[in-house]
Write a sequence for this structure.
């Protein structure tokens, strides 16, 4: 039975994602994303489950930076989790009596309309996580009257649900990934995603275009690109890429080799099955058989067999 670290405490959306990714795993709650990933790196856990991006908020920058700078880890699976927020409080609490609300900043952003409409006079305070907010509200003498969190948090901490599905968008989704120490990759499925971190060799006109061309000419479709500061001064960035395909695919392998030739560093973060099951559209001339045929033709030409 694997032991998986996750962003805790108990009752976070990350715990819910972990339960879906591996119902049999022993769960190790951690105070933050770096702590969860470090538990996987050190061997305290066999792996970790962390959030990577949200359909409203965008990328989880703490996770992006940890993947770029920490000891190498590989993504082995992903999960798209619908995110539904609930207003949770101690038994006997009524919405008109709520004066102080505790929740994560992302929940504040995603529940603005509900807060403005139903809690116009309440003070909303930022918490380390939605589950930590629920945990705090459950304590006797807590200065907070309610928390905005996942329903699972209310179940963990004995809170009642005063309102459900209070987010501004009912279709909000968070993408979670399972990671582990470097090892064998998941086998290609025909519906895969690959993730990289790429550092420029030097800053010059067209540097980003050069990287994108390595994907474009091989028919590799990008599904996400993010820039993050290197910390070496204003205007210095590295890049996160998600794209369709598996490193075992000829077009993907060639694109990675091309990036390796022109970039300062390329960190491979894994090839793994896509959670949505979408298969890529293979551009003419970029399938594995076409790469193999072209390689055979070139070998004949080099042998003088024209």
């Amino acid at each position: 039975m694997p032991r998986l670290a996750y962003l805790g405490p108990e009752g976070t959306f990350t715990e819910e994602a972990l339960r879906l990714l591996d119902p049999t795993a022993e769960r190790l709650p951690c105070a933050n994303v770096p702590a969860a990933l470090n538990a996987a790196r050190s061997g305290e856990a066999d792996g970790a489950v962390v959030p990577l991006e949200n359909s409203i908020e965008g990328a989880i920058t703490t996770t992006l930076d940890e993947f770029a700078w920490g000891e190498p880890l590989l993504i082995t699976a992903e999960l798209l989790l619908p995110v539904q927020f609930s207003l949770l409080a101690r038994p006997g609490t009524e919405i008109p009596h709520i004066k102080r609300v505790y929740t994560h900043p992302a929940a504040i952003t995603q529940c603005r309309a509900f807060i403005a409409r139903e809690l116009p006079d309440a003070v909303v305070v930022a918490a380390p996580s939605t589950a930590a907010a629920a945990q705090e509200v459950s304590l006797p003498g807590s200065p907070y009257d309610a928390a905005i969190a996942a329903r699972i948090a209310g179940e963990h901490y004995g809170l009642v649900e005063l309102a459900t599905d209070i987010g501004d968008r009912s279709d909000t989704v968070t993408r979670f990934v399972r990671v582990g120490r470097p090892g064998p990759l998941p086998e290609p499925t025909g519906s895969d995603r690959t993730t990289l971190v790429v550092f420029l060799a030097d800053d010059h006109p067209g540097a980003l275009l050069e990287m994108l061309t390595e994907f474009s000419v091989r028919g590799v479709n990008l599904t996400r690109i993010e820039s993050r500061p290197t910390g070496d001064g204003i205007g210095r960035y590295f890049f996160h890429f998600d794209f369709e395909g598996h490193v075992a695919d000829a077009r993907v392998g060639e694109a990675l080799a091309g990036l390796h030739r022109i970039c300062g560093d390329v960190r491979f973060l894994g090839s793994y099955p896509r959670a949505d099951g979408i298969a890529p559209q293979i551009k003419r001339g970029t399938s594995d058989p076409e790469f193999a045929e072209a390689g055979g033709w070139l070998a004949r030409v080099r042998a003088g067999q024209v």
Residues 288-302 form the longest helix (15 residues). The chain is about 30% helix and 30% strand.
